Amino acid sequence: MYAFKVTAKQNIGGKIAKGMSVQCVEQNTNSPQIKTIMEAFKNQLGIEIKGIEVSKSYFNVERLK
Predict the structure, then answer these.
(1) What's the Rg (C-alpha) of the chain?
(2) pLDDT band at 55 (very low <50, low <70, confident <90, very high)
(3) Rounded to a whole number, what is the largest CA-CA distance in the chain?
(4) How would you write the chain as a 3-class SS string?
């Protein structure tokens, strides 16, 4: 399992502000899926984005050691 810090590069959906970050865990070394990222925002910060397309390009992904 690998841990990632995911930080928003821009404001998203009026709820996630630029600079907000969460930690995600994935089974492989690839960057986390957008579904995993959005679940992390919901679980860790109580933020749920609905009705808009959110892209992984909106986030900086940093693999944690």
Answers:
(1) 11
(2) very high
(3) 34
(4) CEEEEEEECCCECCCECCCCEEEEEECCCCCCCHHHHHHHHHHHHCCCCCCCCCCHHHEEEEECC
pTM for the full predicted model: 0.90
Which residues partner with 26 through β-bridges?
2
Q: Which residues contact 21 (CB under 8 A, 6 or more apart)?
A: 5, 6, 7, 8
Percent of the chain with pLDDT over 70: 100
Residues in Cβ contact with 35 at an 8 Å cutoff, skipping those fewer than 6 apart: none
